[in-house]
């Protein structure tokens, strides 16, 4: 690769982030009446539903605080993050400090805290916002929420768990995956031992429970000892989930100066990607069944924005830290598919949901599950990783 | 239409039922080791998952008992129904008599009774089986389950309800719809007043709460007073659900000799069908948003077997009881689409899930939600309705 190559890509990711995606959310999503954000935005940014989903509220706080911290100290970015955070502080939690799943536009609670993913994204948001403001109440809330997650994590659904205990106990990949990122996100708030322990636990869980050596694949649900369970949930593979987790592990590898971990995460990524890739139409499948049985998910063959974005981040980090040329080849292939099908230069932001053939299935830019998160975070990560590749190349050239 | 027309169609439905679909389930689905049925069957009938979903277990008991009662007293049909019923009696209920959602192959409970749809299908199954056997324990269980449904119906999800009460209370279409059919199914077990009340209530709820005159559409969720609620759930339309309910209402109309009810149900059916029809690829959409906003359901544009089957039943009954030629025209159009895309003469039974363009998205013949129910029930209903059309035509000709 020439340095010009890297520079052109870096410019594309940076420009899309700063000139397109960030303004799209800044201008269209803020609720100036009640605070917080509208995330249900149609193709050109108009609001089509006013409910407020805590995951996405928190993720947008995180995103604007992160941009303020890492890209430029723009007042409007910080203001956007703070107004969302204040809305959340006022309305987001039940009396026990558990984060609801969703609220009305005005902030009334709609859906109970039936799992702890809202809490994970709240912790991430307030941890990042503390960095921007040094406001101690944000730090305390992030820390309290983190401790609550650890407390609740083995029975995260509580009364809402429909499974009968002891018959077929499964553990899911989502929580260890999120924790492996969250622990670095809020490292500045935690004591060293807890950080080391959490890193060690989540890394071990991901690599020794969910990653299956014989299959060279990460499963979405495994038994309590990590064993394969032959049922719909146990056979499920979500390649995008695994690819996202692999760049979280690479970040841990960089932090801990653990090249072996980075190499392993890169190898697993390449395996997941070639397993998840649709050779007929291009793009990465949303779900597959490891035994090629029919999956439960009717959306299994769709192509989702976050899957592709997280894969791009993963491939660039893999290339930067290992030099494996297959990462770069795959990056160019996934980049071409992604920008051709997801980006929307006409109206800004990205489409979220494509059918198997790559046509938009829904033309929304945001909804119940897509908000201001994967696209801007991924663009930022790709841009910065490409800059590191440029630096590295410049050093090699000199 | 000529009488030969009707006869050819009647023969097609009858033959597919008796020579293809019924043997498919009889031969492939019975679990001779533990009792009950495998419903996860791939294209050629091989079992790909052994979990037992109570909805589908009950529906298959109902189906074979109904065939025994209505078509022919075949010993193997009754045996098939009874062995499933005995498995359910032994394993299907919690200590309070609520029906679980699913069991392992051996019959251990896997998923709690988190709503009352399992109970509805259990009631239907045991009510029908009582007709075949006159075994009093089946009648008692059906009756007890019916009473439990009425008791639980206003708080059907119990502790599993994630919605916060009093903020945005909605009522769903599924339960009144199912009750409007169930009450006729188990009429022989209920006292007259309860039957009349239930018929009156469900008919009123469907036509005056869920059916919206101004839109000429049935909504899937409405407010407590039947008002439109502008949120994802409130905007949702499931055309197949509405069409299925309309033939339930026609059956009530026939029972009560209420031509006005039949006419209205037929008119609503035609409206729902033209609203739900995909003018580009043919077939009926699974979901739409009444305001043309993006629906939550990523599977919204898919074509599902039961939607098409229930529509065929509805159109034939509408035609038989009203003579509206539009019913027959639509019947021929939907019939052509359905038999071209869903039927599978190579391996038997029907495909369940097609993508928008009409290609099988999953090649399974049964799964977690598709079992021995809509196809055989619909084939039977169409066959018998076509026979009534033949009779009627013969009388007219004489």
Q: What keyword list fits this structure?
A:
homodimer, 398 residues, mainly alpha, Glycosyltransferase, 3-stranded antiparallel beta sheet, globular
Question: SSE layout and pairings?
Answer:
Two copies of one chain form a homodimer.
Chain A: H1 3-28, E1 40-41, E2 47-49, E3 52-53, H2 54-70, H3 75-91, E4 102-103, E5 109-111, H4 117-133, H5 136-152, E6 170-172, H6 174-185, H7 192-210, E7 211-212, E8 217-218, E9 221-223, E10 236-237, H8 239-255, H9 259-276, E11 288-289, E12 303-304, H10 305-322, H11 325-341, E13 353-354, E14 360-362, H12 374-397
Antiparallel strand pairs in A: 1-2, 3-4, 4-5, 6-9, 7-8, 10-11, 12-13, 13-14
Describe the 3D structure.
- 2 copies of one chain form a homodimer.
- Chain A has helices spanning 3-28, 54-70, 75-91, 117-133, 136-152, 174-185, 192-210, 239-255, 259-276, 305-322, 325-341, 374-397, and strands at 40-41, 47-49, 52-53, 102-103, 109-111, 170-172, 211-212, 217-218, 221-223, 236-237, 288-289, 303-304, 353-354, 360-362.
- In chain A, helix 1 (3-28) runs antiparallel to helix 12 and helix 10 runs antiparallel to helix 11 (325-341).
- Chain A is built from 12 helices and 14 strands.
- The longest helix of chain A has 26 residues, at 3-28.
- Helices cover 55% and strands 8% of the residues of chain A.
- In chain A, a hairpin with a 5-residue loop joins strand 1 (40-41) and strand 2 (47-49).
- The first copy, chain A, is mainly alpha-helical and 398 residues long.
- In chain A, the strands form 6 sheets. Chain A has a 3-stranded antiparallel β-sheet. In chain A, strands 12-13-14 form a 3-stranded antiparallel β-sheet. Chain A has a two-stranded antiparallel sheet with strand order 1-2.
- The first copy, chain A, has 2 domains: 1-28 and 168-398, Alpha/alpha barrel (Glycosyltransferase); 30-153, Glycosyltransferase (Alpha/alpha barrel).
- Chain A binds chain B through residues 42, 48-49, 51, 101, 104, 108-112, 114, 159-160, 162-164, 167-168, 230-232, 291, 293-296, 298-302, 353, 355-356, 361-364, 367-368, and chain B through 40, 42, 48-49, 51, 101, 104, 108-112, 114, 159-160, 162-164, 167-168, 230-232, 291, 293-296, 298-302, 353, 355-356, 361-364, 367-368.
- Chains A, B: Pfam families: GlcNAc_2-epim.
- Chains A, B: Keywords: Isomerase.
- Chains A, B: InterPro entries: 6-hairpin_glycosidase_sf, 6hp_glycosidase-like_sf, AGE/CE, AGE_dom.
